[in-house]
Write a structure and sequence with these properties.
Strand order of the largest sheet: 2-1-3-4-5
Number of domains: 1
Shape: globular
CATH class: Alpha Beta
Radius of gyration: 19 Å
């Protein structure tokens, strides 16, 4: 009997924090793939592409190679230069780091399907309040328009490597530009700032946006991995023939 598939979710707090709420996009995927695929988070709040690449061997060796991996990094890299905490990573380095991380994933299993998720949005005013409260950052932090180049860089890597991707920076602000608009229109908000609760991290609405976009992408680009296309692991109890039970 074939093993369950492995879905590994790689990234920063946009992925890690999704497992802090039942409404998160990660747990919702895990429910969809129950008995069909193991959904494994390997995501670390605050990590930049530089930090993730530094620990790449330890991260990837912590679980068997995945069949499918999502990669969502770059939001922390997009901190303004000079921001306390050393988050800022120049966009060209971020782009190069992202490509190197993908290469490391493929080195362990060239058949792994990788989905690239770009950084999402920042609400300038609320993000500034969050940075002051949480990190005592008075100047710098994260700005909406500054983040565009990082989302575009992630998209460029995906296009260069012919990987499926979702540009959340673009789609959350202009959902009709999303190729998955028909799948997400029921969760589209009238104000894109509603997708983040503290100016940076996903709200319930933001998690729904990511979840529905990702499900639509899998159906379009990786239909063999749709949850309704996969067999369940182990027989359904009612289907077991107890007159001739398995050994």
């Amino acid at each position: 009997m074939a093993r369950p598939l492995r879905f590994v979710l790689l990234g920063d707090s946009l992925t890690e924090y999704s497992f802090r709420t039942v409404h998160g996009w990660g747990p919702r995927l895990a429910v969809d793939y129950s008995r069909k695929a193991d959904v494994i988070p390997r995501a670390f709040g605050g990590y930049t592409t530089r930090a993730f690449l530094y620990y790449i061997d330890k991260i990837l060796s912590s679980c068997p190679p995945p069949d499918v991996a999502t990669l969502c990094l770059g939001g922390n890299d997009a901190a303004l230069p000079g921001t306390t905490g050393g988050y800022h990573v120049p966009v060209q380095e971020m782009k190069e780091n992202t490509a190197k991380i993908i290469k490391e994933i493929k080195k362990r299993n060239e058949d792994t399907k990788i989905i690239l998720l770009t950084p999402s949005i920042a609400d300038d005013e609320v993000a500034a309040e969050y940075c002051l409260r949480e990190f005592d950052i008075v100047e710098g932090g994260w700005k909406l328009e500054y983040g565009k180049q990082y989302a575009d860089a992630a998209q460029a890597v995906a296009q260069d490597l012919d990987l499926p991707y979702i540009n959340f920076w673009r789609d959350m602000q202009n959902p009709t530009q999303s190729p998955f608009y028909g799948n997400i229109r029921d969760v589209v908000q009238p104000d894109f700032r509603r997708y983040v609760y503290d100016g940076m991290h996903l709200s319930t609405a933001g998690h729904s946006f990511v979840y529905k976009s990702l499900k639509a992408l899998i159906r379009r680009d990786l239909p063999q991995f749709c949850s309704d296309s996969l067999p369940v692991f182990m027989p359904i109890y009612q289907d077991i023939d107890w007159s001739s039970p398995p050994e």
